[in-house]
Structure formats: structure tokens, C-alpha cells
Amino acid sequence: MVDSTMVLKGQTIAYTLYCIVIILLMVWFGLRITRGESKLIKPLFFYIWMGFLTVLVFPFTSITYNTIPWTPMDLNRSDYGPDKTFKIIVEDHQFILPSDKLIIDCNDLVLFDVTSNDLTYGFGLFRQSHSCCPDEVVPGHRMIYSGNLNKPVWYT
Asked: 115 and 141 share a domain?
């Protein structure tokens, strides 16, 4: 399976290209309006560029569709049950964990059931690569995060 970090890099490149296209569209449109028909800017070049990006989008979308590990689980959540469940309570600026260390076996489906009794808190699983799966814990509501942690790394 492709790592989600690699998918993020690919998406960064793709969305950067999309932004460049939109900026070029605005420049092309602005020049056509302010200067009238231009011999330098031909609509054909713009349409060729848009066609190229459209052809590029379909393979990119199909390649990245199932690479993020939690996508299949989110689509068919009723078919999955957690291997481990951790109930975490947040109160008075402290996270009350079920134990000092939460040990998770590789490829276990884990469910974090987090509740806050007083304020809104942030909750996330931070990887060694400094990436995170962030969420908010709102008082009176359960924040449930479930995921398949498929790499043997330390999370904090």
C-alpha cells in the first residue's frame, strides 16, 4: 500500500498545477478583456493546456482513490469492528488515559472514544514524521476516531 505521506506529496503537486492553471486563466481572461483580440495569446494554447490537465486528473484520481488507509473502512464502516478501543476522558486540561502506554499491534483497527467534560480540546495522533490526524473534542459530544495503524512507529 502506498504511504499517505507520498499521496500528500502527489496531491501537493497536482493542486499546485491547478492553482497555476487558474492564475493563467485569470491572466488570459484579463488580457483578452483589456487589450481585445491578441495575436500573442491564442485560445488554442489555453484549451490544449486544460485538455492536458483533464487527461492528467483521471489517472491521478484513480491511483490515489484507495491509497489512504482509512478510505475503505469509511465507505463500509458497518463491516468493521475495532480490535482495540480506548476510552479517553479530558477534563481540567488533562487527558485521562486508560493506561500509561496504549500499545497497539500493527494492522489493528483502533477506536479512540474521547469525551470532554469541560472545554474544547484538540486531539490527534502525531507520527514521527510530524504529520498528524487532528480533531476536536467538544464538551457534551463524543469524538470518535478509528483507523488502521499499519506501520510500526511511535505515535504521541
From this structure: yes
